[in-house]
Write a structure and sequence with these properties.
Elements (H helix, E strand, L loop, with lengths): L2 H15 L7 E6 L1 H6 L1 H15 L2 E6 L5 H12 L6 E7 L4 E5 L17 H4 L1 E2 L2 H4 L5 E6 L5 E6 L12 E5 L9 H17 L7 E5 L8 H14 L10 E5 L7 H8 L6 E5 L1 E3 L2 E3 L16 E2 L1 H5 L8 E5 L12 H6 L7 E5 L22 H6 L6 E5 L12 H7 L2 H10 L2 H13 L5 H10 L3 H14 L2 H10 L5 H14 L5 H9 L5 H10 L5 H12 L7 H17 L2 H6 L7 H11 L8 H10 L3 H11 L8 H12 L6 H15 L1
Parallel strand pairs: 1-2, 1-3, 3-8, 4-7, 9-10, 9-11, 11-15, 15-16
Antiparallel strand pairs: 4-5, 6-7, 12-13, 13-14, 16-17
């Protein structure tokens, strides 16, 4: 496509926008074919959003078919001081950005981009469209598909902070559905939900087989947190239900019936997943996969007449939101006749221990479903459906407040808001530098709300100073299981010697939750082995145990195994006798697990001995360890290498990306 045509299209578009009155804007980005087929329904949806939120709704037809052109339009609209863009929805066949070189922005995705096909090893992500601090380099297009490939550039940010909220509505011709019919029906359903917003009153959460080590304590504490998210439902009535995979075999019919309840508003589904499947039950006698279907398949929607009623569904699973494919299960939820208009889902695999319900209560306090993704700091998380959806609320539109970003308004919310509003205010005040680390630590110490304490902890994790280490120490003993679990993981990310007593205590705790025990066993490997062993023996001598000698021997063996796990592989990186293939594997492993005592030797090998291809790999791997107690050593070397003109260009680029990731 000629550049002149793109420029002319931009000029025509902005000339048409120049006469609009002042006010926040929302963009419906739609391909011309879909717009021609569903113009009346698009107008109905646009009118509903405008009436409900007061936005100036702009319909932007994608006449370019190239992601870069759409991004330029949205960016210009957002930074228009008179009429800032607060959000966008991508309707129909809008190009999909497949991002490479950005796995550090994902929660779990670590596929080898060199070995696997690019359509599998890239991350489909609308962060391309909604986070303008990022920079991308175009690297190709799969002809006949909507897939455009980009590499994350070192010139932009290396962390996520979306400027606008966004969502995807992409019907396809599949399973007997005609996409234009599905699109029309959904837009009318979404318009009705905006004009007649339901009251948030009923919630259900589910836990599938094998998820977060099947921790019962985690689910007990989760119910308490839901009451913090939605304080108005804590009135003594039954508002929250829970289903465990072990309640029935197969459990899927029980689960589907629950989600079809006419009065259900929210469904939080924790399970494993694939693009067209939700994994629910384990295979157990007398059942086998051949005898009965234990999982929820995409075909079950039509096959069993499954029409989800909950307006908002979260698929806390891998791949359920793979919107780049011709069909994914998240799409199936919104294109049924039921009440679902918004689904939060992941386009690739996702971490089990991430915070899936961050700021969830905002959807009943003036925030929208798109905000759940805007504040989820992962490149794979997406809102499928209407991102403007919000439950009935009293008060102000939080997205307008977010756009204005007033320090005084945030301080008011921090004092008087709901728990989620306090957490949101804390996040924005931290971003503005309006709170010192000591003040955030005091908020953590004094807040009775788990969602506020967790947000304070996340803010401290980005400060990476002494207050962060103290915060970890406090959080290891928090009343909330997820906060304790998060603290254990961040203790491993830090490796600070001051955390050793707390980590040893956690290891020796007689009855930790199953997931915390799992995470503790991996986090121990970051610390100095000698210091760990000394503290372990000190605390072990204080334990009261039956069969003390046998138990002590078993604990000592398990502890030693955890504390030294992967050490041999990490040392192999700078061992001259290691083969190139083995070294490559060991470097990739460093991304997930690293004893920080190896950092000096790894940096020496990086500078003095590693070939260029390994330098790129090792720089990228070390960039995952910004919370390490000695991360400053990595920052220093990465900064020097990024400015070293004697190094190959690809090495300098990766060094700059690592420097930006760690020096933020």
């Amino acid at each position: 496509m000629k550049i002149s045509r793109i420029v002319i299209s931009f000029l025509l578009l902005f000339a048409s926008l120049s006469a609009l009155a002042k006010g926040e804007r929302f963009a419906i980005v739609i391909d011309p074919s879909s717009y021609a087929a569903a113009q009346a329904e698009v107008s109905a949806y646009a009118d509903a959003v405008s009436k409900a939120d007061g936005y100036k709704v702009e319909i932007v037809q994608d006449v370019w078919g190239v992601p870069d052109s759409i991004r330029v339009v949205l960016r210009k609209m957002h930074f228009d001081a008179r009429q800032p863009l607060v959000g966008a929805v991508f309707v129909g066949d809008i190009p999909v950005a497949m991002v490479r070189g950005a796995q550090h922005l994902a929660s779990a995705f670590k596929m080898d981009e060199e070995r696997f096909p690019r359509e599998e090893s890239s991350i489909p992500s609308d962060r391309f469209y909604d986070d303008f601090s990022l920079a991308f380099e175009p690297i190709g297009h799969d002809e006949g598909t909507p897939l455009f490939y980009y590499r994350l550039s070192a010139e932009g940010a290396q962390t996520l902070s979306p400027d606008i909220f966004s969502g995807r509505i992409r019907p396809v011709d599949a399973d007997g559905k005609v996409r234009t019919d599905a699109l029309k029906a959904f837009l009318l359903k979404a318009a009705d939900a905006r004009l007649n917003p339901p009251v948030m009153d009923q919630l259900m959460f589910f836990s599938g087989h094998g998820y977060i080590s099947e921790s019962k304590t985690a689910r007990l504490d989760e119910k308490r947190v839901w009451l913090e998210h939605f304080p108005l439902i804590d009135d003594g009535r039954h508002h929250i239900s829970y289903i465990d995979y072990s309640d029935a075999v197969p459990v899927k019919f029980h689960l589907m019936n629950e989600i079809m309840r006419p009065d259900l508003n929210v469904a939080m589904l924790h399970h494993h997943g694939a693009p067209e499947k939700e994994y629910l039950n384990a295979i157990a006698p007398p059942y086998t996969e051949k005898d009965t279907d234990l999982d929820l398949h995409i075909q079950d929607f039509a096959g069993y007449g499954y029409k989800p009623a909950a307006q908002l569904v979260v698929l806390d699973a891998c791949y359920n939101g793979s919107f780049q494919l011709d069909n994914c299960i998240a799409d199936e939820y919104i294109f049924q006749e039921g009440g679902t208009v918004a689904v939060q889902a992941n386009s690739v695999n996702s971490l089990q221990d991430k915070w899936p319900d961050r700021f969830f209560g905002l959807v009943a306090a003036g925030g929208c479903a798109g905000d759940l993704v805007r504040y989820a700091p992962y490149i794979e998380s997406h809102l499928i459906g209407d991102p403007t959806f919000r439950f009935a609320y009293k008060g102000e539109n939080l997205d307008v407040l977010i756009q204005k970003d007033s320090k005084a308004a945030w301080k008011r919310l921090l004092r008087k808001g709901t728990p989620d509003e306090k957490a949101l205010a804390l996040e924005h005040l931290y971003r503005k530098g309006a709170l010192k680390a000591a003040e955030i630590l005091e908020i953590y110490r004094t807040s009775p709300y788990a969602v506020v304490r967790l947000e304070a902890f996340y803010c401290l994790s980005r400060s990476r100073g002494d207050a962060f280490v103290e915060g970890i120490s406090l959080a290891l003993d928090d009343a909330d299981e997820f906060i304790r679990r998060t603290a254990v993981k961040y203790a491993g990310k830090s490796g600070d010697a001051r955390l050793i007593p707390g980590m040893v205590k956690m290891f020796l705790t007689n009855n930790p939750t199953s997931r915390i025990a799992f995470d503790t066993s991996y986090s121990l490997l970051s610390f100095d082995t000698d210091a760990l062993s000394a503290e372990f023996e000190r605390q072990l001598a204080l334990q009261n145990m039956v069969k003390a000698a046998e138990e002590a021997a078993a604990l000592r063996e398990a502890f030693g195994r955890s504390a030294t796990r992967f050490h041999q592989d990490q040392a192999a990186v700078f061992n001259p006798s290691t083969s190139a293939k083995e070294r490559r594997s060991c470097i990739r492993q460093i991304r997930s697990h690293l004893n920080y005592g190896f950092v000096p030797a790894l940096l020496e090998y990086l500078r003095a001995s590693a070939p260029a291809t390994e330098q790129v790999m090792l720089l990228e791997a070390l960039g995952w360890h910004g919370h390490a107690w000695n991360a400053a050593e990595i920052v220093k070397v990465a900064g020097e290498m990024s400015a070293d003109s004697s190094l190959p260009e690809e090495v300098r680029r990766e060094a700059l990306k690592t420097y930006k990731r760690l020096a933020q």
